[in-house]
Structure formats: structure tokens, C-alpha cells
Design brief:
With 295 residues, this protein is α+β, with helices and mostly antiparallel strands. The protein has five helices and 18 strands. The protein has two domains: 131 residues, Diaminopimelate Epimerase, Chain A, domain 1 (Roll); 130 residues, Diaminopimelate Epimerase, Chain A, domain 1. The chain has an 18-stranded mixed beta sheet that branches. Strand 11, helix 4 and strand 12 form a beta-alpha-beta unit. The longest helix is centred in the first third of the chain and has 13 residues. The radius of gyration is 19 Å and the shape is globular. The chain starts with a strand and ends with a strand.
């Protein structure tokens, strides 16, 4: 099986062109195998680039644990780059079908290769029942905005971690086609994210699990964030998560509608526009190509 390794802001996946390659019999198992950074190719998961009757291509995305996710913003940008660079669609405004509907892209091309991609990520979902978040007594109209979440955060972690990082115990939840929980603090580097993210992801109030983000406000137009992705663990970037952080910052009066997000793997430019859609711009990079022996 031929594959291509790509990343967006360090969020790396193994891509398979199912226009040319056979559809894997068990993509969940394949995702687990290829994602292993010691015994496989290495990556945050597997993305299949498939034919579509509704768009120029369809992406199916599987996390490193084999679970299929609805969306991946960084992955979608890389799919848009792939279909252009590899001649599947030579439009500079391709459309890609995802588990969250069809997305529209604008390609920035340098020397006949896509360098950066702008994607319309759609309208954020704030209704707790649709994210989903199940908190007793919470109405759909309220949303989960700066919700006091002390009862849902473990108390048996590293001693003094909350004081050390300047933890804000309030939580905001947003769906960008997949669910996100956002927390704020004074120092994202001081948060024990591997421990906290694993706990929050699996909490019973999140029936489909959740992505967890910790955010440090640098200014009204700039944030630094770290991410724990459900099914993959800590990652260098999360595109849908950065979009959710942009929305959360506006709704809680922390940031403006245009935000530059610094993630461990690079920067993403975000805008929650007047049309209620979130737009994200960032790099898309092809790293290498190879063949996977399925034996």
C-alpha cells in the first residue's frame, strides 16, 4: 500500500489515496498499526482520501487508537493540498467531504505546490446536547460557557499543579463537528496535560469523549495553547480545537474575532466572521512517501 506522510502545524497523519489504492478492509486496525511511532510509520492517525459524489474528494479520519473521528482541521488542509498537488483536482478552491459535511478551501500556491490553505470550518455548535455534554440541570439555551467545572476535574494529580499554572476552573465547550473542552490558565507549560487530558476526555459527562485544550491569553489577538486529542493523546496541533478556542475566547470576552494561535507545532490564523463561520489558515506540508507492507 502506497502512502504519503503529511502534517499541518505538526499534526501528522498517514494519508492513503483511495482513488488509486484499494480501500483497507479494516481501517481502524490499519490506523493503530501505522500510527505507532516505534513499530509503524508514526503519526496522530490515518486519513483516507476517497472519491466523493458530493465534492472533489472525501476524507475519512481515524485516530491513533483506531476510533473514527468526524473532522480534523489540520488533516483537511492537507487533503486539500494533496488533491491539488497530486492532480486529483486542479481547482484552487477545492471542496472536501468530511464527517461534518462538505468544506470549502482556498489554496495558496507557490511554484505549483500548495503552501498554505484557508478553510471554512463552518458554524460552531454551542448546544450542549449536540456537542454533546451531559451536565445535570444544564439547559440547551445556556451553553457551556465559563461553566464552573471544579466537580469534573480530578483532585489527585500532581501536588499544587493548579496554583503553579494559574488554573481557571471554568470550562467552555464548543463543537466544530467534533467536541472540544477549553480551559484557561496562566501557563500552559505548567499543566500536567497527559494526566489531565486523559481524565477529562473519558469523563462520563462527555458521552462521545472530548478533545481537551488549555489556553494562555497573550493579548486580545493572540493565544498559546496545548492539546489533548481524544484517541491520540497529546498532539502538536489541533485545527478544530484552535477554531473552538477562537469561538470560546469571543464568547467569554477574552479575545477578539481575529486570533493568532501558537501551538507546539506551529501557528494557525483564525477568524470567527460576521457570517458566523470560523475560518482557519495554516500550512500544509508533505513530508515523505513510501510503501507499507501489510503482511
Amino acid at each position: 500500500m502506497r502512502f504519503t506522510k503529511m502534517h499541518g502545524a505538526g499534526n501528522d497523519y498517514v494519508y492513503v489515496n483511495c482513488f488509486e489504492e484499494s480501500m483497507p478492509e479494516d481501517p481502524a486496525e490499519l490506523a493503530r498499526r501505522v500510527s505507532d511511532r516505534h513499530f509503524g510509520i508514526g503519526g496522530d492517525g490515518l486519513i483516507l482520501i476517497c472519491p466523493s459524489t458530493a465534492a472533489d474528494a472525501r476524507m475519512r479520519m481515524f485516530n491513533a487508537d483506531g476510533s473514527e473521528a468526524e473532522m480534523c482541521g489540520n488533516g483537511a488542509r492537507c487533503v486539500a493540498k494533496y488533491v491539488y498537488d497530486h492532480g486529483l483536482c486542479r481547482s484552487k478552491t477545492p471542496r472536501i467531504e468530511t464527517g461534518n459535511g462538505v468544506l470549502d478551501f482556498e489554496l495558496e500556491i507557490v511554484d505549483e505546490k500548495v503552501r498554505r490553505v484557508r478553510v471554512d470550518m463552518g458554524i460552531p455548535v454551542l448546544d450542549p446536547s449536540e456537542i454533546p455534554v451531559e451536565i445535570p440541570g444544564l439547559s440547551c439555551a445556556e451553553g457551556v460557557l465559563d461553566f464552573p467545572a471544579q466537580a469534573y476535574i480530578p483532585t489527585d494529580g500532581p501536588a499544587g499543579w493548579m496554583e503553579h499554572c494559574g488554573w481557571d476552573p471554568r470550562m467552555t465547550c464548543v463543537s466544530m463537528g467534533n467536541p472540544h473542552a477549553i480551559f484557561y490558565c496562566r501557563s500552559v507549560e505548567a499543566i500536567p496535560l497527559e494526566w489531565l487530558g486523559a481524565f477529562v476526555e473519558q469523563h462520563p459527562i462527555f458521552p462521545k469523549r472530548i478533545n481537551v485544550h488549555v489556553v494562555q491569553i497573550e493579548s486580545p489577538g493572540e493565544v498559546t495553547m496545548r492539546t489533548w486529542e481524544r484517541g491520540s493523546g497529546t498532539t502538536l496541533a489541533c485545527g478544530t480545537g484552535a477554531c473552538a478556542v477562537c469561538v470560546a475566547g469571543v464568547l467569554t470576552d477574552r479575545t477578539q474575532r481575529d486570533v493568532l494561535a501558537h501551538l507546539p507545532g506551529g501557528d494557525l490564523e483564525l477568524r470567527w466572521d460576521a457570517d458566523k463561520h470560523v475560518y482557519m489558515t495554516g500550512e500544509a506540508v508533505e513530508v515523505f512517501r513510501g510503501e507499507w507492507d501489510e503482511a
